[in-house]
Amino acid sequence: MISKQLNDTLTLTGPGTDAGEVMRRYWQPAALTDELAGKRPVVPVRLLGEDLVLFRDSDGELGLIGRGCPHRGADMCYGRLEDNGLRCPFHGWHFDRTGQCVEQPGEPEGSRMYEKIKTTAYPVIEKNGIIFAYMGPGEPPAFPNFDCFRAPETHVFAFKGLWDCNWLQAMEVGIDPAHASFLHRFLQDEDPADSYGKQFRDKAADTDIPMTKLLRDYPRPDITVEETDYGMRIIALRHLDNGKTHVRITNQIFPEAISIPMSREMIITQWHVPIDDEHCYWYSMFTSFDKPVNKELMRAQRLKEHRLPDYAPIRNKSNGYGFDPDEQMHETYTGMGLDINVHDQWAVESPGAIFDRTKEHLGKTDVALIKYRRMLRAAIASVKEGNLENLPMIGGVDPATIFGPISNDTIGDKDNWQDAFETSDRERRAACTDWDATT
Ligand code: FES
Ligand SMILES: [Fe+2]
């Protein structure tokens, strides 16, 4: 357990907060490219507690500016998208994508007051289906060479979902390899042939054992954590009865993302992005080392479970997450359906909007959470001192040299598991002929 003060330090992300200032040194997912697909590409964005509006101007370029008009605060989300910018409907003030006011049509002829009006504006960049924003001071950092960024657009599918809780507890479920044996347990194994686009339904690497069975039969993983130049590598070993070891490699990507295997052909890179202190979006990039992703199928699977335009899950607290006691008895550990996102959602929302960590009791399997909190505290201290040299992917190593990260499931000899996962990763990359996945 930690003190209330430390809990606040680690969880709150508005302007001027400790963790918020760290987050503002990194690119943050602000929206999906899909959200701007309609005939009026203007969407509200609430990010790190700040209200913004994202739009695409007639040059096809993106702008992310303050939501309240600097004149008298009207909501720019209702702005007129015209003249290569966004015009406030209240008195017609017009803003370009840099946030500069370029016209005040109701002010006296010849007035140049507009030159002094500039609203909040943040740089944005589109990467494989996600629009990222940089909300910090100075120049934004370079992107690392992760697979999700360097794979071609055809091999990456992006989606998001709303969770009603603080970002940290959402992220912590992603660095907790023990929960998969319980929370995502299926009491029966479905045919892995139906597994496309779903997590934990494939066969465990190079075997005929369904992942569901392996996780169920071996619920006590040995977990070790290694610090890396992007965050942490988390190694979960499950020693099988046949003398082999199942190795699952997942990652924490600083500050609030994870990278995990999904199936033999795909990995997931997932950010847990603070909307404000009590809500977050998960943004996922599903990256294929095999064929192009079937985006239509993956989108349709997920749209069945989510409501637009806010990507709120249809199963949620208000309907008990669809809990069915019969299903809990016979089919799943949770009784909340087969979509593992719903399980995670319940696990992170039910402790309360901001979990009171003065009440927690961490065990040995929570080792990655403990290490992560240490990393975040160190980063907070560095930002306060103005010394960014120690921040992952910002100081020290050139981000262009950071590849991967390796995210996979492998089975190898008990004494040779390290070699097994590295070899399996090399083989997957070598077999990827659609794009260059080698490092
Ligand atoms: S409030 Fe926007 S132009 Fe007046
Ligand atoms: Fe999970």
Question: What does this 3D model show about the protein?
Answer:
Keywords: 2Fe-2S, Dioxygenase, Iron, Iron-sulfur, Metal-binding, Oxidoreductase. This is Aromatic ring-hydroxylating dioxygenase subunit alpha. InterPro entries: Cholesterol_7-desaturase, LigXa_C, Rieske_2Fe-2S, Rieske_2Fe-2S_sf. The structure is a single chain. Helices cover 21% and strands 26% of the residues. The protein has 10 helices and 22 strands. The chain has helices at residues 4-11, 18-23, 147-150, 167-174, 211-217, 295-303, 325-330, 340-349, 367-385, 417-431; strands spanning 28-32, 42-47, 50-56, 62-66, 80-82, 85-87, 94-95, 101-103, 124-127, 130-133, 145-146, 156-163, 222-227, 231-239, 244-253, 257-261, 266-276, 279-288, 306-307, 312-313, 403-404, 408-413. It is globular and about 85 Å long. The mean pLDDT is 95. The structure holds FE2/S2 (inorganic) cluster and fe (ii) ion (FE2). Residues 173, 179-180, 183-184, 340, 344 line the site of fe (ii) ion.
